[in-house]
């Protein structure tokens, strides 16, 4: 048993999920090293932690080799553009962080004898032909489509993670994260929840791509952080799907946000993006069986907390 505090590296720790994870790790008594290049994350997400004992920020691009003096016991590798708007704006950066970046962070895990958790994604399933998606489903990815830079970067990162385990015995885990939402998302990141909230708070109609009947399963960020911690502290390697099984049509998500903000339910329609998945819902039985995890916060409650955050805290985040 270790007596010194657990020292944890979070790559992408200034992002939406990463900063929420840093908060939680510090609350749990860990020391946290946050490495981020701020390509899609924000200083404001971690400003409140800068003076916290046990918190260290390293401004670094993990595409370059990463050196961190001292012990590291756990690594959460979250660094990557994550929203379609971001990764289509940063296509080569996305491929590089999934490939060279993941290689460098895995090399660090190997050198430090740390447990490594990869934040992978439901996008490894592409536009799925099997529904809901179990971990055994091998995916339907268009290798040259507009989402391929992200999907293939993550698929490569998964392969690399498993290769480090097979070649060097590195202790690894792979989390396949499905749509997650909550405070600290950027209003302009193009994902459905912040886009609808931005439109609702500005009194504008909701913009719907396609018919709006395409579904999303939305998991509140605190639940996702619980799941990532459970997987890290378990002996399992995964891949493990993490997300909500509460599947909703995009039109219904707009309806909930309309109700909660008082914005009238009006729509403007645009074509569905190429390769936009029609259906998205994880089979989370493995997470439930291995980790005893399932989300605790329902979508209406999570949306209420998120809308409240955007209303009250957004000013300091612009
Ligand atoms: P985010 O964009 O808010 O956070 C990503 C962070 O990584 C940002 O702070 C960014 O600046 C940083 N980063 C990017 N490239 C980097 C590099 N080369 N070096 C150092 N830092 C770098 O996104 P998020 O939603 O918090 O996603 C976090 C992770 O979870 C990502 O790996 C993403 O692929 C994965 N994920 C998220 C979701 C979701 O619904 N939010 C779903 C599936 C997977």
UniProtKB/TrEMBL annotation:
Give yes or no: UniProt keyword Glycoprotein. Answer: yes
Q: What is its main location?
A: Golgi
Coiled-coil stretches noted in the UniProt entry, renumbered to this chain: none
Q: According to its record, how does it sit in the membrane?
A: Single-pass type II membrane protein
Its name, as the record gives it, is Epimerase
- Protein source organism: Acrocarpospora pleiomorpha
The cofactor(s) it depends on are:
NAD(+)
One GO MF annotation is: NAD+ binding
